[in-house]
Amino acid sequence: MKLLIVNPNISSGVTDLIEAEARRVASSGVQIEMATAASGVAYIETRFEALLGAHAVAAIAGERKGQYDALLIAAFGDPGLHELREVLDVPVVGMTEAALMTAAQLGQRIGIIAISRRITAWYRECVDRYGMLSRLAGIRHLDRPLRDPATVREDHGDYLVELSRRAVEEDGADVLILAGAPLAGLARSVADLLPVPVVDGVSSGVCQAQVLTRLATMRAPSGSFAKPPLKLNVGLSKSLSELLARE
Amino acid sequence: MKLLIVNPNISSGVTDLIEAEARRVASSGVQIEMATAASGVAYIETRFEALLGAHAVAAIAGERKGQYDALLIAAFGDPGLHELREVLDVPVVGMTEAALMTAAQLGQRIGIIAISRRITAWYRECVDRYGMLSRLAGIRHLDRPLRDPATVREDHGDYLVELSRRAVEEDGADVLILAGAPLAGLARSVADLLPVPVVDGVSSGVCQAQVLTRLATMRAPSGSFAKPPLKLNVGLSKSLSELLARE
Amino acid sequence: MKLLIVNPNISSGVTDLIEAEARRVASSGVQIEMATAASGVAYIETRFEALLGAHAVAAIAGERKGQYDALLIAAFGDPGLHELREVLDVPVVGMTEAALMTAAQLGQRIGIIAISRRITAWYRECVDRYGMLSRLAGIRHLDRPLRDPATVREDHGDYLVELSRRAVEEDGADVLILAGAPLAGLARSVADLLPVPVVDGVSSGVCQAQVLTRLATMRAPSGSFAKPPLKLNVGLSKSLSELLARE
Amino acid sequence: MKLLIVNPNISSGVTDLIEAEARRVASSGVQIEMATAASGVAYIETRFEALLGAHAVAAIAGERKGQYDALLIAAFGDPGLHELREVLDVPVVGMTEAALMTAAQLGQRIGIIAISRRITAWYRECVDRYGMLSRLAGIRHLDRPLRDPATVREDHGDYLVELSRRAVEEDGADVLILAGAPLAGLARSVADLLPVPVVDGVSSGVCQAQVLTRLATMRAPSGSFAKPPLKLNVGLSKSLSELLARE
Amino acid sequence: MKLLIVNPNISSGVTDLIEAEARRVASSGVQIEMATAASGVAYIETRFEALLGAHAVAAIAGERKGQYDALLIAAFGDPGLHELREVLDVPVVGMTEAALMTAAQLGQRIGIIAISRRITAWYRECVDRYGMLSRLAGIRHLDRPLRDPATVREDHGDYLVELSRRAVEEDGADVLILAGAPLAGLARSVADLLPVPVVDGVSSGVCQAQVLTRLATMRAPSGSFAKPPLKLNVGLSKSLSELLARE
Amino acid sequence: MKLLIVNPNISSGVTDLIEAEARRVASSGVQIEMATAASGVAYIETRFEALLGAHAVAAIAGERKGQYDALLIAAFGDPGLHELREVLDVPVVGMTEAALMTAAQLGQRIGIIAISRRITAWYRECVDRYGMLSRLAGIRHLDRPLRDPATVREDHGDYLVELSRRAVEEDGADVLILAGAPLAGLARSVADLLPVPVVDGVSSGVCQAQVLTRLATMRAPSGSFAKPPLKLNVGLSKSLSELLARE
Fold this sequence. Notes:
The structure is a homohexamer.
Chain A: E1 2-7, H1 12-25, E2 31-36, E3 40-41, H2 47-63, E4 70-73, H3 81-87, E5 92-94, H4 95-103, E6 110-114, H5 119-129, E7 136-141, H6 152-169, E8 175-178, H7 184-190, E9 198-200, H8 201-215, E10 233-234, H9 238-244
Parallel strand pairs in A: 1-2, 1-4, 4-5, 6-7, 6-8, 8-9
């Protein structure tokens, strides 16, 4: 199984972090390919930035069409997730959605730890779009920018444990999601300090991509995720128009 | 007041229809400018097509930045609405949202008449995103493609009246929205045959844009629609990167 | 267009405040008529007081029937709004509903600043009745009575800015509503100190009344806001029984 | 215990029906007093008619203040229920609310059989106001006016059984409410033909009034149902202003 | 009327407390029988403990089948309530559900005071299962174990008043439920110190059991609380298999 | 990894069906152990039957404690799922929950095909308990009992396709769940005839159990799924009391 993991941000350093965590968790039969957005911003925190990210992911998805068995969108809020599900013949997985659906099987109320204050509004809307708002205990966030992925445990470990404790005691969380790709390694390394089970988006995403590939039947022709009706289009890049084409 | 109305579809014929209805309803002090998406599809019915439309609207919004006092996105599902609200200093109005907020003041439960079956799932998600699902009586749809905007009353008038009757009697609607730009003229012309008040997106959008321009205070620096934090971006067209720039 | 604005409270001083703000914002073609409740209380804060207010508004609406093109109910919680929509042939606008539908087009989550603690429960129920509870970030309130409308900026300006800041930072509001008629002037005068856009009920109400008058089709005979079925009534004042009569 | 039962409609014939059912179900220690609205309409089906009914009930409640230990509002949609709870020192019960809270203890999803089509929208809003919409299986309604309370079983018995069967099989109801005062006798007389348990508003209301009187502690000074703050009022009838007075 | 009250906990001391409160509130015609779970835990606070309690209640219900006219389950979260409603021919009442449906008639938003922190999550899920989450103002809890039922007013009275005050002022509660069987006496004894009306589960349960017995029609054959379809069963105790048998 | 799959029904024939499907889908490293309820009913369709099933699953879980790395509850409505999550140190998976969380990643609105009419009410409550009611397009059901698992494709294939078509066209489903263990094989064999992707509970459950085992961190001490507080218990079987013990 070939799994294409796309970082909708332009930061190749974060792509490396994602890849490391993905390779650690993937089953032996999974062949991982990485891609980084060719356009967009360093770190998606808002709706507009997510639109840029979705566009960049779609370009990559179209460009490499036919070369992967599943696609994992590896950024907050899953930019382009529902959109690409309409046009691809393979499972499309979002790391936020995957983390939510995984966490939902470990506890009733889910707490989220996010990487910045600004991102929380956008993230809440994502949870709502997936119909999981009633399962959300709350979103708490780091209050300092990440200095360096390599030192994140030293820099943020204590505060993360403190946020987790509050999520459990004050918000009533039974399970936590560490919501940023840059936090991928952190989840594992501090897990034994935390009061409840914790999942992160990258490893959840890789595992759920494997599940969907294992289970999913052939692509079906109806429902609201069927291919868009054929119609005139203009002005699109070759990779985007490829996504609208019928075989 | 300069109102820029952007058709996120590539069809200039529909742009003309929108313009006619917009000019009919706008107050005398409103100067209307029209724009048509340079890329995308003939008619947006799905999430992926809406992503293309949002991107095309953003390109126009950036290109003409500083040349308008309000922006009206004139297609189903308001592609790019929340995204552009983050980056523009002027009111951004969506014709779906404007129609919903207008209709909500004419009756408690809102019925929507859509232009195709495929579009209904995407449209329902829009209503949900605006928090108005509890106000939605239901969505009914035409079952034949629109042959020609000029003959729409002859082609669909009877069926529209029938759909409206069912929306009221079977779904419990108190007010109706005719949800497609191509239906703009139709709403007015058949209004006297319908059992409840009816609004359409184009005229609602123009009127609400005038309200927001009249009322809105200067752009404020906080909340989740403040400008995205300044950060590195690459690979964006000049018009898109313009939207991320600070003055 | 003749717009009848009814203050459901008995306080003519507040009527004057409303009128000043209404005249400031209304388009040139709008002819404003004011009316003050002939019975009821000085300031509506509870459900029972709102029942008194609704009755007083209905009496005025019936008394002046045929003399206005739209009716604006100018008090918290829109007493009589849905009730009068059933019996009047013209648009009926509530300042709370109008403010909510306007604010909803400026941000995703709405914060409300109310004039007293007691009023907040009743106000929350109004937001719920309009189906907008999922859009409500929270309600905060002044903690001292308004001394004098003329000195409100001096008396409450600082605290209002503080409440607004908390609504944004702690509740996640993207847009604010200053919810009391007596605050009408205040919204505009402190807008430049606030962290997000702010609307008030009076100006929203006047603008939305203009929109509905511009758009609304003729009164329709079906749905749950059609005229009540003709039936025996007794003991009603002439103005109320007028509202039940068929032309 | 003195229970004042107020018919918010002006129809004394219906008052008699209510009284008969109330006397049948009340415990021996309950002394029942009946009252009929002095103003309003023959049968409340809409929001505006309910406003008239609420006003009439309030007038009676004030007029007889101090002469009853509990008040039962005996009409659809409980006109004046929340309002009067603020100003009376004794339990106030609504027959709709009482029926819902009783039915909720007999099955998970509640079906309602209403007396006319027009009434269903208003009734649905009541269920929503009580937070019970998720428990509502649906509302079905008789399609012919009630000819005569005395012949209701012959006139409507068969159709009622048919509606009940559909409410269970098509809507998934576990329990039914026969929602109109005029149906009070009917519920009991056809109960053995129905597929699920059935309750009616009058008997539920009488029983719940007894429960609240038995349980309720002395009137408490806080919360949103505390007495409205003392303030100026004008133009109110003696019975209404009595309700605002402090002892 | 014979009312069987089952304590799903194994603590006979609490059974005595429940009995005392039940006898105090029951009407003269009610004959109360008490039973205590033969297996399970000292005090149910979690979902698993509730499963044990539900099983124990079912065993008693089957063992004494035919010997009672109504069954009251007297513990937090009503273990076995919905389950037993399917198999018994008499009303089954839960003290939590009964308290909620009673409290709902005394105020719009309900605050709950629970006996321990751990129990609050499970209790919230119960409120949700009854569809009453929108009515829940919040759950607050004692922070020390109950030393002795006989000294509960001295031990916890002050803190209870403090929790109640916060539930009203900070959470917006209009009415309170004291949620544990051991608190039964307390509610009454401190009622005059509390800011809003207060109900407890035992007395609510006894009263609602009387209401249902008075009102409920004969057991009906359809809906999701009809008897389970007849089918093979094995390995059940005589009392449990009795519950599945048809007469 | 040792996966214990428990059939909460007493039917060993269905256990065989579950096992076949589980072995087909499990990864090579998964060692599957099967168990069948020692007490209970042939096929769980109601709440009371599920209580019996939950008890039987708990007995097996306690009896084999320490002998499995994950537990899969293989029946409708996941009897005992939340309860066992509190007391086991390993992941506990329910086939309904697993199917929902898997399906949620294949489409926005989920249609369920159930095995009998009676089961649908109980199943809807499960979906609600998982917070997924807003994602539920509807539940449709077979109308004839399953004659023989071996001939299910011949017996029900055509009707299943018909139900699926209606779930998509009339209910708006994007993805389907075939909800009964006896249907496990069917899903795969008719998948190519269906209009949208389809998942079944057994294979979803096995895959999700693998995900949770791969991801889950060590058992954490807080939140509402922590071990119940230590307290006195009596009358429990050795296997149940084992579940309450601390190591």
